[in-house]
Automatic annotation (TrEMBL):
Protein name (record): GNAT family N-acetyltransferase
UniProtKB keywords: Acyltransferase, Transferase
Gene Ontology molecular function terms on file: acyltransferase activity
Enzyme Commission numbers on file: 2.3.1.-
InterPro entries: Acyl_CoA_acyltransferase
Coiled-coil ranges (or none): none
Name of a matching Pfam family: Acetyltransf_4
Top EC class, one word: transferase
């Protein structure tokens, strides 16, 4: 298992679920899910196997040794099977905040979206608050999936901002919704 130099604890567990440092073996599943869900990601074209190999070999591999990486990525496992991935991205070490990133296996969204988001957010809070002592974590989401807001709000995140017509989607400008949670300890 890869280990992040910045973390003392590498694995975060809740029930039958865990976050482990992103695994190379999950890269093609991650590529598939990203391509299937490209509509809500900041990704302008489908990924290829070559893109994914390059990203894992030249970007992800370097994150493990950095004292202050700009992102910390994890495989999201259920009973040791990867069912999603995400982490903290755009980490701002000066202001002690980070954006939450997460996608799950597209086939699981219909029946498990809220439950898996709830579990994932609980795990990512352990990482952000207990391990990294961040002050704030937040989501940055195109206004395309209202069911996402219900899931993050149920986990105690508050709608902090609406960036009006902030992104162009299918020749139309759409809002970006930001939800955040402050470390209360």
């Amino acid at each position: 298992m890869n280990k992040y130099k910045v973390l003392n604890k590498q694995e975060f567990k809740l029930e039958n679920f865990s976050l482990v440092p992103i695994r190379y073996e999950d890269r093609l599943d991650i590529m598939k899910w990203r391509n299937e869900q490209i509509y809500h990601l900041r990704q302008d074209q489908p990924l290829t196997v070559d893109n994914q190999e390059h990203y894992f070999n030249n970007v992800v591999s370097k994150l493990f040794e950095q004292e202050r990486p700009t992102q910390i990525l994890f495989s999201f496992l259920k009973k040791d099977v990867c069912i999603g991935y995400g982490g903290l991205v755009h980490i701002n070490w000066i202001d002690m905040n980070a954006e939450i990133s997460f996608i799950m296996d597209t086939d699981l969204e219909e029946n498990h979206f809220h439950d898996y988001w709830r579990i994932y957010l609980g795990l990512i809070e352990q990482l952000a608050y207990n391990e990294l002592d961040l002050h704030k974590i937040y989501t940055y989401a195109f206004d395309l999936r209202p069911h996402l807001y219900k899931a993050v709000e149920a986990a105690g995140f508050l709608k902090e901002a609406i960036l009006k017509e902030h992104c162009k989607f299918q020749d139309k400008f759409i809002d970006v919704i930001i939800h955040s949670k402050i470390n209360e300890k």
